[in-house]
Design goal:
It is a single chain. The protein is of the alpha/beta class. The protein has 18 helices and eleven strands. It is about 45% helix and about 15% strand. Helix 3 packs antiparallel against helix 7 and helix 4 packs antiparallel against helix 5. The two termini are about 25 Å apart. Keywords: Glycosyltransferase, Ligase, Phosphoprotein, Pyridine nucleotide biosynthesis, Transferase. This is Nicotinate phosphoribosyltransferase.
């Protein structure tokens, strides 16, 4: 490999498949519910890394060019064929009406602004069935352009750039050596959204597939899964719970019980559509405590497991064990997917903690695909960037999380939702990834 981030004529987003698999599982779920499909949702970019001014690094014209390119993408006929044959979990997964919709999909336009302080404001508005796909495309583009232009600015010679980029490969190879010492440690690649570059991600995925054949379970990136004959990995994300709660907030005029019930309606609808194969519950949107105390028993007895995405992972594991035991469920038959800012040490720690108690696996993201020699002096550090829904049909949306540093929404809306869900979490950890 030539150690450069991309060729001059290479776009950041390579195809409509250059996204996370959960965009298609959620996409079908959203499309198949008329109340969801046509709701007007606004997604906004948020940089949670302090003192980073994206607008002072990324050239505005280049960003516009990449966004315009992504906006024109549609799945090819062969990609639709791939999705139509998707039976990874035993049955045909995606509905035909949804696939026909994807063939002619049009992404809504974006709004882009750079403030006088250098902050980047990026917003996408449209029907939920279409606008949802902007999430991963926008994250890929902003992350890669930030990394690319910082390197161009501060590492001026080809040899200096090559040496720096090699640190990403060498650091990953060191991690592979450690992985081999823990044969029961398994993971899936979740690194698309904050990767340093598409080329770097692809190289690391290929290495993992070859070097860790029994531990590397697949990738969330559908383009790479298709190209490299790997398992596409993914289920759902916070946006389902957030938008469902917002719609219930509107129709019920802020009725607490209706808003809480909307969460159970999502999991019930998900089970009816996808069944056991995609039954990994994401519990932290409004605090895991609320889910474990109020969810129907079927979430514990029937679902495959849960995904941890915020808060102390070992504390989460212990709460999960107690939840299963309360329903007479053997936790050893269930699974936790850890996916919050994972590193090799935290993965090993979780593996050891869960051993003999509950199955565990890992979703490894930023620390895999954007882990180079740290250069905080010039801003070359991984960013904590997210693109989340901020409103539906004009009503503000909220995410609380099991880490209050990840809370999103206006202060007024956040306080309302804390009351709706009896939220009392005090855990705070700055967002590294």
């Amino acid at each position: 490999m030539t150690y450069q981030l991309s060729a001059p004529d290479e776009h950041v987003v390579r195809s409509f498949f250059d996204t996370d698999f959960y965009k298609f599982t959620m996409g079908d779920f959203i499309f198949s519910n008329p109340n969801y499909a046509n709701a007007t949702v606004i997604f906004r970019l948020k940089c949670r890394t302090k003192n980073v001014k994206l607008g002072r690094v990324i050239p505005l014209k280049v960003l516009e060019m990449e966004l315009d390119h992504a906006m024109q993408l549609k799945p090819t006929n062969s990609e639709i064929y791939y999705l139509r044959g998707m039976d990874v979990y035993g049955d045909r997964m995606l509905s035909e009406p949804y696939l026909q919709f994807l063939k002619t999909i049009e992404l809504p336009p974006y709004k882009l602004n750079v403030t006088t302080d250098g902050d980047l404001e990026l917003e996408f508005t449209g029907p939920w069935k279409s606008v949802t796909y902007w999430e991963i495309f926008a994250l890929e583009i902003v992350n890669e352009l930030y990394f690319r232009y910082l390197i161009k600015r501060h590492l001026t010679s080809p040899s200096e750039r090559a040496r720096y980029l090699m640190t990403g490969l060498s650091r990953f190879l060191d991690k592979v050596k450690i992985f081999k010492q823990y044969p029961n440690l398994t993971y899936s690649d979740f690194g698309t959204r904050r990767r340093a570059s598409a080329r770097h991600q692809e190289e690391l995925v290929e290495i993992a597939a070859n070097e860790l054949p029994n531990q590397f379970k697949g990738t969330s990136n559908v383009y790479l899964a298709n190209k490299l004959n790997l398992m596409p990995i993914g289920t759902s994300a916070h946006e389902l719970s957030m938008v469902a709660a917002g719609l219930a907030d509107i129709t019920s005029n802020g009725d607490r019980d209706a808003i809480r019930a909307s969460q159970h309606e999502v999991t019930d609808g998900w089970w009816k559509k996808f069944g056991f194969g995609l039954s990994i519950a994401l519990t932290d949107t409004y605090g895991t405590r609320s889910v474990f105390e109020t969810a129907p028993s079927e979430l514990a007895t029937d679902w495959k497991g849960t995904r941890h995405d915020s808060g102390d992972p070992l504390r989460y594991a212990e709460k999960t064990l107690q939840w299963y035991k309360r329903y007479g469920v053997n936790p050893q038959d269930k699974m936790i997917v850890f996916s919050d800012g994972r590193t090799v040490p935290t993965m090993i720690q979780a593996l050891n903690y869960c051993r003999g108690k509950i199955k565990s696996t890992e979703g490894w993201g930023t620390n895999k695909t954007n882990d180079f020699e740290p250069r905080p002096d010039i801003g070359l550090i991984p960013l904590s960037l997210v693109v989340k829904p901020s409103s539906v049909n004009g009503r503000g949306l909220v995410k609380l999380s099991d880490n209050i540093a990840k809370a999103m929404g206006t202060p007024e809306d956040i306080e309302r939702y804390k009351k709706y869900f009896d939220y009392d979490e005090t855990y705070f950890e700055p967002c590294t990834y």
